[in-house]
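Help! Submission page says 'invalid entity' but I think these are all valid:
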Amino acid sequence: MNLIKSTISIGKILHLNPNLTFNNSSIRRYAFKSDLKIKWVHPGKVSCVKPEKSGDLESMPEIDQSQYQLEYRQSKELETANDLAKKLFTLEFAPRYKTTQVYIRNTADTVRRHALDTGSAETRIARWTGAIRAMQELLERFPRNKRLKVNLKELIDKRKKHLKYLRKWDYKRFEWLIDNLNIVYKPPPNEFHWVTRKGSLRKLTQKYCDDLKAERLTAYRRQLESEQPGFLEEKIRSLEFICQEQKECGVEVTVTEEEINEVKRQLEALLKERKEKN
Amino acid sequence: MALPAASRSLLLLGECVPCVKHNASKFKIKRLELDTNLLMYFRKDDFVYAHDPEKKCKTGDIVLIEQLPQKMTRLITHQVKDIIYPLGDITDPITGKKVVAGKFRDHIEEVNQVYGKLPTAFDYGKAPERGWLEDKKDFTHVETYIKYHKFKNDDQPYAV
């Protein structure tokens, strides 16, 4: 019986309101689809060996090619040799790795504790940083060199691990080191996930809702703040009126002068503050 | 929401974790929970918010926190009492000397002096307080996330 009644009533409603139609999407209970016009753009994959991922803020600079190779720097014979022989022992006529050696040595020299220091945490990290930057430059030229890429990735990870240790042991030294070597240190995210359309859209929707909420709350706050002086004036008027009435009727006066003055002071301070802001 | 079991005790020792709140810090409290089937204890972390108006606690510090007589907000139930171990600035409680991993700082310093310390080397006396590179090169004060979208003015410093 009830069922019949309800069908009849629905029929009545439908009959009375021809505009009321059942929108299929509004009663769909499965696979919810959002009406929000949020367009997701895939951030794109950045290779883990790129400087923006490894955190290097500078790349390998041009090294002066007219200096000697590292192993001939102390040579006595070279001092007395002729110009042609001297030139032969410069970086210009040496393989690339000799230039890299010089760069790595220079980088380590900037943070060395003493002249013989090769094993301290900062010196090792500096050495690896030099090597990483040299390899990154090389990989730009030979992107299909897989062995180089693997070595580079492993070295970047090792440096990151040791930076993590250094941070735990000696924070001030860690800060000094990353500032000197120009590295950005970002901790790994709490959980790993693949970048998916669904997950990203969920986050974007959440962000949209949060932004909307914040925006409306600030608008409401602004509206209330604009009403504040008017409210205070009204309060002063009402308090004075009550005071007056009570005096005239001869009842106990509950509103004191101090209260009214306090509100007046509040209003004055508020107006002054507003003026200073503008 | 039922409060985590850890927050019921009066004093707690917790590790500070990144938190975006302005007046409070978040702490990770490690507890061992008994699995009655295996009769073994397993680690379980509870998270507690403590009132810290000046944001004294930095990520990784080991901090003593104290329960507030009454809750400040729904989340903030504790207040910071003392920073026991600032991260990377440990003082040995017996000798009162500063320690780096397994060595005393002054021992390291003496070794450097013997070898001839270089002027470019790191000096604790000149080093500024921790936090001067925050948001510049050191991003450990925030939780990082995996980049999931390309925004219009694409500036996401906390994305990896």
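Support: the input was valid. A stray whitespace character was the problem, and the output above is from the cleaned input. The first strand of chain B starts at residue 11 and ends at 17.
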